[in-house]
User: Which sequence fits this backbone?
């Protein structure tokens, strides 16, 4: 992959996926989305309670409820999205495998991406799992827009590797072959993501080079950004590689979009846990290590065609 000339912003979400070989990520189910909360247990393996291998590692409150509440922006196919009223995708399948080891149900709760960490701080969620890039800013609670402390940071259990891509209308690339070609162009992104921050950094670079700034339109969901591109309101969309590949493959039967340039800024996705919940963090880490070891993790990635994003070692706060 050609290295990006754009510096990595410190605090954004990616939604970012692994390396060029993930192009097959698009060959999946048809996309969908929704706003309702999943019914408890939807899409998860049967709870085993105290008989589960790692149940005893969980905090007492979760042992009592046997439920882990997960905050997620459920409109980011194929990572997490709605199909036939159920939450499906890479994250829900990994969460279900973790739940089996921990002996609990996982309950996905929908929210906009930029509110998920706040939901962790307020105890609305136990975890946030939403293609969230593990960054130092998030670990330390730094607002990427202001560079100032915005609240308590979070810990991450890293579970996938990802990168950022650009796509345009099919057959109408506007001469865009990478980030350096976006000066003076219009781009749509999901608010609060790595794509959002990269676009802002690239726009600053354009102006430093005495070129026109990038016009950036930020939306609550990636689906809204795609809709804007279809309507011709912007020249391109940027999102995480597996999501971009999925959109290119499936939207309009593959006739709506085309990918341009190389993916950039490969980084780990992390399951976010509040800093004061180290026991849950360590239980999730142990569960992830077990499913990597027993093959369940590899099966999930193979199902979704994203094996190239696999981690080899489970790390806490491995993002930089």
Assistant:
């Amino acid at each position: 992959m050609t290295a990006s000339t754009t510096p990595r912003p410190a605090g954004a979400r990616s939604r970012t996926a692994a390396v060029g070989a993930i192009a097959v990520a698009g060959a999946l189910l048809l996309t969908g989305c929704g706003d309702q909360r999943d019914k408890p247990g939807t899409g998860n393996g049967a709870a085993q309670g105290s008989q589960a291998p790692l149940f005893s590692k969980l905090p007492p409150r979760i042992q009592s409820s046997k439920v882990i509440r997960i905050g997620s922006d459920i409109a980011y196919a194929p990572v997490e999205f709605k199909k036939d009223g159920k939450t499906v995708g890479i994250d829900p399948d990994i969460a279900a495998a973790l739940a089996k080891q921990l002996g609990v149900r996982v309950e996905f709760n929908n929210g906009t991406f930029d509110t998920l960490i706040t939901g962790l701080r307020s105890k609305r969620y136990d975890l946030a799992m939403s293609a969230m890039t593990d960054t130092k800013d998030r670990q330390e609670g730094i607002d990427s827009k202001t560079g100032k402390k915005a609240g308590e940071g979070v810990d991450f259990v890293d579970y996938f590797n990802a990168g950022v891509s650009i796509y345009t209308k099919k057959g109408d690339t506007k001469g865009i072959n990478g980030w350096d070609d976006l000066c003076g162009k219009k781009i749509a992104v999901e608010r609060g993501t790595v794509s959002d921050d990269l676009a802002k950094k690239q726009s600053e670079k354009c102006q430093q080079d005495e070129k026109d700034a990038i016009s950036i339109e930020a939306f609550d969901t990636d689906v809204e950004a795609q809709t804007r591109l279809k309507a011709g309101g912007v020249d391109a969309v940027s999102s995480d590689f597996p999501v971009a590949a999925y959109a290119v493959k499936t939207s309009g039967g593959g006739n709506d979009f085309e990918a341009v340039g190389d993916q950039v800024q490969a980084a780990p996705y992390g399951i976010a846990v509040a800093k004061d919940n180290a026991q849950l963090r360590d239980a999730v880490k142990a569960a992830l290590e077990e499913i990597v070891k027993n093959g369940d993790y590899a099966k999930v990635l193979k199902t979704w065609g994203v094996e190239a994003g696999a981690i080899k070692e489970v790390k806490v706060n491995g993002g930089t």
